[in-house]
């Protein structure tokens, strides 16, 4: 399998996170889940190409059977987040049915291909195994149609590419040979328990605890998804509770804009500041003027933390399959950002006599994409050896 190309993409409402393995070489990416219409008339031409970072200037045109209108051009990721007409995700967005899913996914894969082949202006890139995730209800209802729309050949044209000759375009033909779709949350469990290289079990204690039950709470941008694991298998799911970090980010942005006269370009800009730590929690609305914004951030994170635990408590009380679960696990970038506040809120729950002892695993913000990469490799192993994918990890040696 080392000679093959694998791509795993977590299709998050806030970020698309990708893990690519090309003949053993591993690359990681993340771009904001943002898209905006491109209009050449209003394109701000830079003074010099050296002033432009390609990742922050992704302007794409996607031609694919999966997309309805194949003539439109879009800003995506950080470039889109800076536009006035930026389109962000809505709660309960239907990923399989929306063109934005395919535009962002194929463009991210093509961007990776361009970085691997920096001297080429027209290139082909084959993905032997593509693994993507869906929320549990969408997974149950639409995984097969999603897979069929992803398999095949898709063309991505990058426009206004810095450092290239006129017409400043790069063309990438993507060839997706096989696809496997995973359920969010359940993929995180795979990422927790399976080794990336061998696919073997790396956490026997967690496997053991799954006999009594495990609840994983995946806190995202617009929703929180819960998956119950018992005897090493998903047994219950509560999808799409309309609660996530985005509403709290919006509150922070609005308060800072009103009180400090500073406007963030996007939620992703604020999230990156939060990820950098409290030492970076300031803005400069005017040159030489530095404003501490922690007083706007901390109350919102505390509010989110308390409501996150309320959701956890409701799920553990209502799900017969995982009553008496031995372990509760926090997953997702939003949970990582608010880890301190969630732990403080958990103390209050203990004082109420309803303790929620949460595990905050390493790489908790990347567990879904790590699990998807495991799933992709398992699927390829099954394909090559004709073995049931459920038994692959126990048998594969490397």
UniProtKB/TrEMBL annotation:
InterPro entries: Alp7A-like_C (IPR054368), ALP_N (IPR040607), ATPase_NBD (IPR043129). SUPFAM superfamilies: Actin-like ATPase domain. Residues 8-184 form the Actin-like protein N-terminal domain. It comes from the Bacteria. Residues 214-346 form the Alp7A-like C-terminal domain. CDD domains: ASKHA_NBD_ParM_Alp7A-like. Pfam families: Alp7A_like_C, ALP_N. This is ParM/StbA family protein.
